[in-house]
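Q: Predict the bound structure with nicotinamide-adenine-dinucleotide.
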Amino acid sequence: MASNDLHAPERDFRHTTTDSISFSFKLEEPKNDILLQPAQSVIMNILVYSAKGFEKPFLDAANTASYSIDYIETRLTIHTAELVSGHVAVFIFVNDDASAAVLQKLHERGVKYLLLRSAGFNNVDIPTAVQLGIRVARVPAYSPYAVAEHAIALMLALNRKLIRANNRIHDLNFSLDGLTGFDMHDKTVGVIGTGSIGSVIVKILHGFGCNVIAYDEVENTDLVSRFGLKYVDLHTLYTSSDIITLHVPLLPATKYLIDKAAIAQMKKGVMLINTSRGLLIKTKDVIDALKSQHIGYLGIDVYEEEAGLFFEDHSEDIVQDDLISRLLTFRNVIVTSHQGFLTDTALRNIAETTFANLNCLVSGSKCDNEIV
Ligand code: NAD
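A: Predicted complex:
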């Protein structure tokens, strides 16, 4: 287990049982809002699952209350839940498993706070957490720009065949054959989900001169009046769009939104972008459509079987996942490893909001980011 050396003195408390953990708050009224001004003297042991080197400096910097933090690279699963003993708070990320059985194990080992370093919380069984008294909070928005800009990067890289062009040039092949793209200007782009990330997408595409249409169960009138966005039903979006980009959360209603039946309604040669959640797309159906060339381009930052695959170096392994293997054979497919959020601004915001959420929950205050 890799520990945070900066906070060595607090490690003495690591094996303190939850019963004997003391929460001593600064009693003076802080000048700033509690979200910005953490309680300075709380003794708190935190276990960070799925901790990666790129985020540790941001979490350390945001730990202004000097809580004791242990970082582990492993994901939270039913098997690794044992590791929480001695920790009251657990920080998790998108591919950690906080299903009912895992939460029960965390509860038995004294965990009281579950902090998501993400916006999506489809990996947490919220009713069970509530029933067990584990308080859960998330980071609802840390940088919609980070994810939206990554989605646009996928669109442009696919359209202008940047990966292929770069590989070719490194082989001293300066030919342009096979690299023809299309103007984004005047193309119709269908945005599914116009919340925080989808809204940024609409604004960027409006700047490109695209004809932007959208589907969402809640219409954003500001996007309509300022950017000429037109809301349409899903069928119209599928039949009209040259590019379709997904920005709805994963819910029972959105699981496998893009399947064989949806693809059948799309234009031949459509570009499909998914930076939202892997299970929005039925990968097998998309592979069939790539083979038949009904889908002309695919850019995904998320994959339905990404847990245990993404964020890790598997370069020495034999790939067991036939779907991802097949996807990687198409030259009109770009896969990134759930890195849409990965900007310095987003990492700073995630770290600061996660600690602000913890301070808020521990203080007993109402926490806007709590999920109940
Ligand atoms: P948001 O909550 O601000 O927006 C979601 C939108 O989807 C809302 O406008 C909502 O009305 C709409 N919606 C929900 N259910 C719907 C349904 N059944 N039909 C139609 N519309 C529906 O969320 P956001 O911050 O824009 O994030 C969108 C998703 O992006 C997240 O849920 C998450 O899965 C994903 N995400 C990915 C990354 C990454 O690194 N790739 C990072 C952050 C978020």
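A: Residues 206 and 227 are 6 Å apart (CA to CA).
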